[in-house]
């Protein structure tokens, strides 16, 4: 019995030892938790700088002048004076239609003019004689009137014959088809020896010419874009592209920089009922002729005049359903969430229109370790714009 009592005493001592050890471990864990510092995050004040907003559109290049060459007279094609696809200058001879039938017509009508002039000369002399004789009562006044009418008719015949001659001469000139504008010509659509039917809008085109320098860039803008620009123009914050040649830049599909500068020169007067967009047009110089009609490009248009803006990296912005937030840290290390209104991306950074101040310390790295109302260890850093971003804008 004494042995049983000893065993119970040993068990009690063991339980007390375990309990005491557990209390010591719990006390040690709480102390460790109290001693652990808040999680570190990087904070920075917004970058404040003067920026210019640009809006981005997609579109295609179009020729300033697009000409379909059609014959104005009919005849057999005698010669082609260009190489398919070459550059041609205004006035260069391109096609020759057999001129011989038209030369013959010019000769015939020239003879008609001479015959009419001969009749006119005789009528003039007859009238002069009749007017001389009427004074001596040798001929009647009626005879004089007849001679005067003959003279007027002869003059009309001369005028008609000269008009026919000019028309024949024009037809002869039309047998030589020259370039009406400078540009690049297409391939020929008809070969030498074929009969060319000319003189109507339904005549088959012989070739086409497109001008290349300068060249248009055509794009479509939404109703929201149009209204924004209209209100900016009314408030005086940005001139309308109808009145001022606002600057634009274009970027080809294989380019990363906005090096091609142009200017606005047209905004349409109606919206398309099908697409709900309005057409705009810019013009670009094209001295290297690399831009051709139909090529695709991205264009940026001045969206607003220069203003001072606050910029943050997109990594500092949190999305909460439809709201955009940033986390700011006060002097004691406490985190607070602030809703913000965002603008475009400029130089790789997002414009913040309102919601924060230039002195706010915004968490730019380590957002996953921060919670509104929690504590963090703020590590100061700075925000720098990306020098290689140009001033590209995305909306």
Q: Your description of this structure?
A:
- There is one protein chain.
- Helices cover 29% and strands 34% of the residues.
- The protein has 395 residues and is of the alpha+beta class.
- The chain folds into three domains: 40-51 and 307-389, conserved putative lor/sdh protein from methanococcus maripaludis s2 fold; 55-64 and 215-305, Efflux pump adaptor protein, beta barrel domain (Elongation Factor Tu (Ef-tu), domain 3, Beta Barrel), CATH 2.40.30.170; 68-210, OB fold (Dihydrolipoamide Acetyltransferase, E2P) (Beta Barrel), CATH 2.40.50.
- The strands form five sheets. A six-stranded antiparallel barrel has the order 2-11-14-13-12-15.
- α2 (100-134) runs antiparallel to α3.
């Amino acid at each position: 019995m004494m042995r049983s009592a000893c065993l119970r005493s040993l068990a009690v001592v063991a339980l007390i030892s375990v309990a005491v050890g557990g209390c010591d471990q719990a006390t040690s864990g709480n102390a460790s938790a109290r001693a652990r510092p808040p999680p570190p995050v990087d904070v920075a004040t917004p970058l404040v700088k003067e920026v210019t907003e640009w809006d981005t559109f997609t579109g295609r290049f179009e020729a300033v002048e697009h000409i379909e060459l059609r014959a104005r007279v009919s005849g057999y094609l005698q010669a082609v004076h260009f190489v398919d696809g070459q550059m041609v200058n205004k006035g260069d001879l391109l096609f020759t239609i057999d001129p011989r039938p038209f030369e013959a017509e010019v000769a015939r009508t020239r003879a008609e003019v001479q015959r009419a002039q001969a009749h006119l000369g005789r009528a003039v002399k007859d009238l002069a004689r009749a007017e001389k004789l009427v004074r001596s009562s040798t001929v009647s006044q009626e005879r004089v009137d007849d001679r005067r009418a003959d003279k007027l008719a002869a003059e009309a015949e001369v005028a008609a014959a000269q008009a026919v001659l000019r028309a024949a001469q024009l037809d002869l000139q039309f047998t030589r088809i020259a370039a009406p504008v400078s540009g690049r010509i297409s391939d020929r659509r008809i070969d030498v020896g074929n009969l060319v039917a000319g003189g109507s809008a339904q005549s088959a085109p012989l070739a086409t010419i497109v001008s290349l320098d300068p060249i248009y860039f055509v794009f479509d803008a939404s109703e929201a874009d149009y209204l924004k620009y209209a209100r900016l123009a009314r408030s005086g914050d940005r001139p309308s592209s109808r009145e001022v040649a606002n600057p634009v830049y274009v970027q080809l599909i294989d380019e990363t920089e906005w090096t091609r500068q142009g200017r606005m020169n047209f905004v349409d007067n109606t919206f398309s009922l099908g697409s709900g967009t309005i057409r705009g047009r810019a013009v670009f110089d094209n001295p290297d002729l690399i831009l051709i009609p139909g090529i695709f490009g991205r264009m940026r248009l001045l969206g607003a005049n220069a203003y001072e803006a606050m910029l943050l990296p997109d990594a500092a912005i949190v999305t909460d359903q439809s709201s955009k937030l940033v986390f700011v840290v006060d002097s004691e290390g406490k985190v607070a969430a602030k809703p913000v209104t965002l603008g475009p991306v400029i130089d790789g950074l997002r414009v913040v229109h309102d919601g924060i101040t230039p002195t706010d310390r915004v968490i730019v790295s380590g957002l996953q370790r921060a919670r509104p109302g929690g504590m963090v260890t703020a590590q100061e850093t700075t925000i720098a714009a990306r020098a290689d971003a140009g001033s590209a804008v995305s909306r």
